Amino acid sequence: MFEARLVQCSMLKKVLEAIKELLNEATFDCSDAGIQLQAMDNSHVSLVSLNLRSDGFDKYRCDRNLSMGINLASMTKIMKCAGNDDVLTIKAQDNADNVMFMFESQNQEKVSDYDMKLINLDQEHLGIPETDYSCIIKMPSGEFARICRDLSQFGESVVISCTKEGVKFSAAGDVGAANIKLAQTANVDKEEEAVTIEMQEPVTLTFACRYLNSFTKATALSPQVQLSMSADVPLVVEYKIGDFGHIRYYLAPKIEE
Amino acid sequence: SSTQGRLDGFFKVL
To answer: Bridge partners of A249?
Structure first.
């Protein structure tokens, strides 16, 4: 038996928003520790890794490990039926071929349940190696989204160049060229508004705008985003999810010819 | 010009 209760179901709506542009379907692996999802997009350029710890939920029970293959368009249809303030309960029997989503209004006067068929997905699990990154940039997630959106008007690629002075995002194309430089913030009132850079050595890498823009669909999950970069390895874009865990996106760099 | 790399080489299949 699997059962997870979430008082504010808006978190799951935001998670779905954050993954559905990259993935059509995904396996939600449920265990005692929580819910994990790991999947590459169809072109194997990016990978989504989601971790929601069981202790973040208001109630969580998972007697046996359960892998739920879910069509994300179907799940989106169901989650659209929930109010942001509804209490969500997800339930599945062991070895079930369906999962139930129950939404209760705050005053408990409206209760809806939606039964969704699970699908068989033959997804392989990947080991992500521990990496010491040359540069770790933390910045407001809204600022990162804005930069990706603005630069995508100029070209298909964004060059991210990090030194100890700051980080520079550049794009170029038919219209011309665009450069956005962010320095580390000297002092800010709120931690979430800070730009901080931990640099071992400078790094410059090129990434596809399209994927970066898809990652920024997670902006609503966290006020800050962390970018980790090393030469010739995938970029990691991480959004923390409150008391639950995180969503991480890995993106293969573009290779100069 | 640049070509898009893929992730396949970076991660080990468990």
So the answer is: A48, A237
pLDDT of residue A125: 83
The predicted complex's ipTM stands at 0.93
Query: Could you tell me the pLDDT band of residue A105, with boundaries at 50, 70 and 90?
Result: very high
Across A135-144, average pLDDT: 98
Helices H / strands E in chain A, number of each: 4, 20
Enumerate residues 6+ apart whose C-beta is below 8 A from A117: A74, A97, A98
Question: CA-nearest residue of chain A to B6?
Answer: A45
Query: Per-residue pLDDT for A77 more than 80?
Result: yes
Contacts of A40 in chain B (CB under 8 A): 7
Verify whether the Cβ–Cβ distance B3 to A46 is below 8 Å: no
Question: Around A213, how many Cα atoms within 13 Å sit in the side-chain half-sphere?
Answer: 13
Query: CA geometry: angle at A84 spanning A194 and A146, to 5°?
Result: 30
Confidence at residue A126, expressed as pLDDT on a 0 to 100 scale: 87
- Mapped to the 3 state alphabet, what secondary structure does A97-154 carry? CEEEEEEECCCCCCEEEEEEECCCCCCCCEECCCCCCCEEEEEEHHHHHHHHHHHCCC
